[in-house]
Design a protein that fits this description.
This protein is α/β, with parallel strands linked by helices and 613 residues long. Among the domains are: 154 residues, Alpha-Beta Complex (Flavocytochrome C3, Chain A, domain 1); 101 residues, Methane Monooxygenase Hydroxylase, Chain G, domain 1, CATH 1.20.58. It contains 19 helices and 22 strands. The strands form six sheets. Strands 1, 2, 5, 6, 7, 8 and 15 form a seven-stranded mixed beta sheet that branches. Helix 1 links the parallel strand 1 and strand 2. The model has no long low-confidence stretch (mean pLDDT 96). Bound molecules: flavin-adenine dinucleotide. Flavin-adenine dinucleotide binds next to helix 1, helix 2, strand 6, strand 13 and helix 15.
Length: 613
């Protein structure tokens, strides 16, 4: 066992954790700052590893659309309004106002943002946004941010603890005073234990992709921060809002942009075009094809975008036991390019990179894709999907981001004294929908704030010792963790419950059934298997996380953002949003072992000079 004493403890080393560590050190120069992470710092988590065709970092700069001195107010309004009025307006204001400083900081650290000749940053429009705010370096924007921050943190006197899964927060008289961690490499339990005692602790453990069967997170992302904070009694919020969208099963690439604008056929394994079976029988096919085109700019499932009907159709087809593919070889039944809305045709024409004769554009989705994004065809081939040889691309809804998390206030503080949260682990800064690019921004803005505030608190207070009795009790609990089903089996069952009942189509009946399944798993317990203790503890955490997700889904009897709530699974459309009645938070808290849910009003956004513009 090793005891590690510090002033500020930061758990998780993605964009939020690294930013918090750097800021904590800058605020408390003589303080001991400890950054602890699963795996190798700089190589674990989403920021270090995730890529997409063009990763977005949302910023309002002085020249950002729509311009003028108030342009940041549009950004705040977007977060709040497009988010569905279920985020805190004060946090939206902070995100928007501090975006410029966050961008400039990364720019100074050498993140290679793409710039125009005049030195201004290139910005584009992302899913769910109205204005072009997304800065980028390319497909690896997040990785570049991680690398730059790691370089900075490594140049400072920050203690880095690699390969350590923090497994439990420690509390004394209502205050978080540290955490237990387990070295992932040691064999013997006593040797593995790390006891951190800290004056202030920041959770930056990211999201919980691994709670679902199909996701685009690295596998270590098991929502440990959500589960630890919950067990310690902190409030969590917005756990029902999880970003999900259609992805290629083999490459995990999000199926958006040109992939949809080429208007492929949606077929099952038998080659049957199934979309029309899930639309009203008199829906013209051209209407469905316009939706496919539109899906190119509205990737995540959202009640506020009619394109969610495509996700619903794919999901229902899969629940019926089918596999689903995008087929680019031939046009969908009755498709004519000229039937696309004029606005979409103009958009298509603006995207042409390698023009083909007009009649080819009519010929096949592959011809259209090769006209607007020939590089993608090559990329897919390199990654095992050869569209040119006639291969079809298997797709399924996959989870990409948790909008909610540990509820934070303006200082990155949580409802527990001594505990802060930032990045994807935190909740309340995003609403039901999260315009693309705001997650990376959030990791930087609230990472900085949490680091600063935690360091200020650490300067003010004394550290409390973790008692030997507490350590002995924890070791005893860990030794007793070996009964019931094998951990890997339990994990699979959790994933099958969430993927079936808390993914695209949510119903009261399904969610109740899912909760029963989770309760049975909890009751039966978890046995260690060849994956070891850390895997088993993560799996325990996944039960807590999944229960929070399912209970929050069950409580919200309306649809909003990615939460599509259906009266019955067979219904063609989800229930509508109940506005303004349901502009509410569902706040979750553990009270003496019972999961309590309460409805609360988020902080309303107030822009001092009224609406922007
Ligand atoms: C494929 C993909 C594409 C995306 N594209 C965009 C985009 O274009 N724009 C955008 O804004 N957002 C995007 N996102 C979301 C965004 O990248 C993430 O929300 C963000 O990077 C999260 O940063 P973070 O620091 O909060 O968490 P992470 O970067 O995930 O870091 C979490 C850290 O916590 C550690 N950790 C976890 N549990 C423990 C534990 N128990 N003990 C110790 N350490 C622990 C992990 O090892 C890791 O170091 C995308 C996400 C994905 C998956």
């Amino acid at each position: 066992m090793e005891r590690i004493e510090c002033d500020v403890l930061i758990i998780g080393s993605g964009g939020a954790g690294l930013r918090a560590a750097v800021e904590a050190k800058e605020t408390f120069k003589r303080g001991k700052i400890v950054l602890v992470s699963k795996g190798v710092i700089g190589e674990s988590g989403v920021t270090a590893t995730a890529c997409s065709d063009r990763m977005a970092f949302h910023v309002t700069l002085p020249y950002t659309e729509p311009g003028g001195p108030d342009n940041w107010k549009y950004h705040a309004e977007d977060i709040y309004r497009i988010g569905g009025y279920v985020s805190d307006g004060d946090l939206a204001l902070i995100l928007a106002k501090e975006a410029q400083a966050a961008f400039e900081y990364l720019d100074r650290l050498g993140v290679p943002f793409v710039k125009r000749e005049d030195g201004r940053a290139e910005q584009f429009i992302t899913d769910g946004s109205e204005y072009a705010r997304a800065c980028y370096t390319g497909p690896r924007t997040a990785n570049h941010i991680e690398e730059a921050l790691l370089k900075k943190a490594s140049s400072m006197d920050i203690t880095m603890v690699h390969h350590c899964m923090v497994s439990e927060l420690l509390k004394s008289r209502g205050r978080v005073i540290g955490a237990f961690g387990l070295d992932e490499r040691e064999e013997e339990l006593e040797k593995r234990l790390r006891v951190f005692s800290s004056k202030a602790t920041i959770l930056t453990t990211g999201g919980a992709g691994e709670a679902f069967g199909l996701h685009v997170f690295p596998v270590c992302m098991t929502g440990d921060g959500y589960a630890m904070a919950y067990r310690a009694g902190a409030e969590l919020v917005n756990m029902e809002f999880i970003q999900i969208g259609l992805c290629s099963v083999r490459t995990k690439l999000a199926c958006s942009g040109s992939m949809m604008r080429a208007v492929p056929r949606f077929v099952n394994e038998e080659g049957e075009e199934f979309l029309k079976n899930y639309f009203h029988h008199d829906t013209p096919l051209s209407e469905i094809y316009n939706l496919i085109f539109e899906k190119g700019a509205s990737w995540p499932v959202s009640r506020e975008k009619k394109t969610h009907l495509l996700d619903v159709a794919v999901f229902k087809e899969m629940v019926r036991g089918h596999r689903v593919f995008l087929d680019y070889r031939t046009n969908p039944e009755g498709f004519r390019f000229q039937d696309l809305d004029p606005g979409w045709r103009r958009r298509y024409e603006n995207e042409i990179k390698r023009p083909v004769p007009d009649q080819w554009r009519e010929r096949s989705p592959l011809d259209r894709l090769s006209e607007i994004n020939p590089e993608l065809i090559d990329w897919l081939k390199e990654h095992g999907v050869d569209l040119k040889s006639g291969e079809r691309m298997e797709i399924a809804p996959a989870v990409q981001h948790f909008q909610g998390g540990v509820k934070i206030g303006e200082r990155g503080d949580t409802s527990l004294r001594g505990l802060y949260a930032a990045g994807e682990c935190a909740g309340g800064q995003h609403g039901a929908n999260r315009p693309g690019g705001n997650a990376l921004l959030d990791s930087q803005v609230f990472g900085r704030i949490a680091g600063h505030e935690a360091a200020l608190e650490a300067k003010r207070i004394d550290r409390q010792e973790v008692s030997q009795r507490e350590i002995d009790l924890y070791l005893k609990r860990l030794k007793g963790l070996n009964r019931g089903k094998r951990a890997s089996e339990v994990r699979k069952e959790i994933q099958s419950i969430t993927s079936r009942f808390a993914a695209v189509v949510r119903t009261e009946q399904g969610l109740r059934e899912g909760l029963k399944g989770l309760q049975a798993l909890r009751r039966d317990g978890i046995a260690l298997d060849e994956n070891g203790l850390v895997f088993a503890l993560e799996t325990e955490n996944l039960i807590d996380v999944s229960e929070m997700v399912l209970r929050a889904c069950l409580a919200r009897k309306e649809s909003r953002g990615p939460h599509l709530f259906f009266n019955r699974f067979e219904d063609p459309s989800p229930l509508p949003s109940r506005d303004p009645k349901w502009r509410k938070y569902i706040v979750i808290q553990n009270r003496s072992g019972e999961m309590i849910l309460k409805k609360e009003n988020p902080v309303t956004l107030t822009l001092d000079q009224g609406r922007p513009g």
